[in-house]
Amino acid sequence: MAAKIDRRFYIFIITFLMSVLVFGQAGLSQEQNATVYKFSIRDDINATSWRNTKQAYLKAMEQNANVMLIEMNTFGGMVNFADSIRSTILDSPIKTIVYINHNAASAGALISLASEKIYMAKGSSIGAASVVDGQGEVMPEKYQSYMRALMRATAEATGRDPKVAEAFVDEDVDLPTLKEDGKLLSLTSKEATDIGLSDGEVSSLDEILTLENLTGSSMIVHQITWVDQVIGFLTNPAVQGFLIVLIMGGIYFEMTSPGIGLPFIVALVSGILYFAPLYIEGFAANWEILLFIIGVILLLLEIFVIPGFGVAGIAGIVLLVCSFAFSMVPNESFDFSMMPPNFLFRSFLLVILSIIGAIILSVLFGKSILNSRAFKRLVLADEQASSQGYVASTFDNEVIGKEGIARTDLRPSGKVEIDGKWFDAVALGGYIEKGTAVQVERHENYNLFVRKKFEI
Q1: pTM attached to this predicted model
Q2: Residue at 323 is within a domain
Q3: Mind giving me the DSSP string for 223-234?
Q4: Rg of the Cα atoms in the chain
Q5: What pLDDT was estimated at residue 31?
Q6: Same domain, 101 and 80
Q7: Which residue has better confidence, 23 or 262?
Q8: CA atoms within a 13 Å half-sphere pointing along the CA-CB vector of 258
């Protein structure tokens, strides 16, 4: 009887061990056949980083990737975009591993804490996540409180010590073995590994794959497309300022010359290049683009319909400035709670300086641009000379220099009376009110070009 029990016991043990071996090998094979999707965060956390992260996770899902591997080297950036990246990582069904290759400061620390695994290259660091402005000055308490809550919640969601995460933001958190009183917490790769915040110090990506049993996996490296590169270029502040100059310059030249021509096309294309990338990046909202359209309409009304320059013109300029500036700054219905105050100020300053620059360039170089060889290639320059049988007008050059009266408002086109005869005329220098004395400066085809008499 005892022999039978022993045999059954031995058979059970052997069967159990064989099952463990079979299932273990199956699990190992499954891990080795996994797909790893890799992308990098090497710059400041901003709209471009957020867009690249979204694109990476979407493509990883399309490729049925099992693991997302993020190689990180950043000193931080904008909290709102870091929070969006954090949420994407937490909500994704794909396992995320962050490889800190040198730095994960501030917003980078928040993103790292959202991942399932953190590995750090030897000599790397993580921490110092207090909210600061562009000059490095610590922001008021409401910003720090929000950041502390984000850090705690993220650490709790991924099973890490929330007190350590909070110490990255709050210098008053007591961690005597890790930091001095009154100092923010920053950890080296060894310190982070010793307290369990990091899953290990490594020398390369291959070592991470070995530790995660992914040595036989296929790896897909995220590629930045030309569209991403163009959007990144167009959202550069210097390029945005140049586009504003082109928009305002185009509007100016279009308003000072009759008809729709090249200046209008330049302004239109520049406006599209300015607003489209910001709209895609989540900066420009519909209402901000609407402000721009209304501002242009008010300026047109002021110049061509309403006499003088008053409320409509001033309101149009204000709306244009606001539409440009607000489009640069992410906000939810004027909620700038997570934006450093000087960030919005810098946006307004850039817009105002660009508009002033456009005005100065238009006044100084306007005539030379219109008469330049490059510009003339874009317009019809042929003349219909009288020697070839063409008749330019029904009046001769004796009318040039004569005085007359505006019989209608010139906006800029209208009617003038000279020597008892009425002629079609175009105002030079802006709006001319009905009844104003005018003087003929030149004529082209069937139009006289006139100015107010006191301007001569």
Answers
A1: 0.62
A2: yes
A3: ---HHHHHHHHH
A4: 34
A5: 47
A6: yes
A7: 262
A8: 14
How far apart (Å, rounded) are the C-alpha atoms in residues 283 and 80? 12
CA distance 153 to 252: 52
| DSSP code at position 69 | E
Is 137 among the domain residues?
yes
Give the Cα separation of 386 and 48 in Å (integer). Answer: 60
Asked if 205 and 67 count as a contact pair (C-beta separation under 8 A), the reply is: no
Whether residue 187 is found in the same domain as residue 231: no
C-alpha 245 chain-centroid distance: 18
Reference 111, options 89, 143, 80; nearest CA is 89
Query: What is the amino acid identity at position 401?
Result: G
- Of residues 314 and 62, more confidence is placed in 62
Residue 369 has pLDDT above 80, yes or no: no
- Residue 264, both tokens: 């209008």
How far is residue 354's CA from residue 361's CA, in Å, rounded to a whole number? 10
User: 135: burial class by Cβ within 10 Å (0-12, 13-18, 19+)?
Assistant: exposed
Place of tokens 């997570």: 338
- 213 with 242, same domain: the answer is no
Give CA 101 to chain center in angstroms: 26
Quick check: is 392 in a domain? yes
Residue 61 within a domain: yes
Other CB atoms within 10 Å distance of the CB of residue 34: 20
Burial 60-69 (b: 16+ CB within 10 A, else e): beeeebbbbb
Query: How distant, in Å, are the alpha carbons of 140, 233, 282, 319, 340 from that of 348?
Result: 22, 20, 19, 12, 14
Print the domain residue range for 23. Answer: 1-27
Is 137's pLDDT higher than 70?
no
pLDDT in tens, 170-213: 888 888 888 888 888 899 999 999 999 999 999 999 999 999 99
Average the pLDDT over each of 160-164, 175-179, 281-285, 423-427 and give the range with the smallest value.
281-285
Pairing of strands 437-444, 95-105: unpaired
Using CA atoms, how far apart are residues 323 and 344, in angstroms rounded to an integer? 12
Query: Can you read off the two tokens belonging to residue 243?
Result: 């586009």
Q: Please tell me the least confidently modeled range out of 60-74, 281-295, 382-396.
A: 382-396
In the chain, the number of structural domains is: 4
Asked whether residue 232 falls in the same domain as residue 134, the answer is: no
Burial of 44 (C-beta count, 10 Å sphere; 0-12/13-18/19+): middle
Residues 418, 364 within the same domain: no
pLDDT at 296: 84
The string of pLDDT tens digits covering residues 216-257 is 889 999 988 787 778 878 888 788 889 988 888 887 777 666
Residue with tokens 């000087």: 342
SS3 assignment, position 1: coil
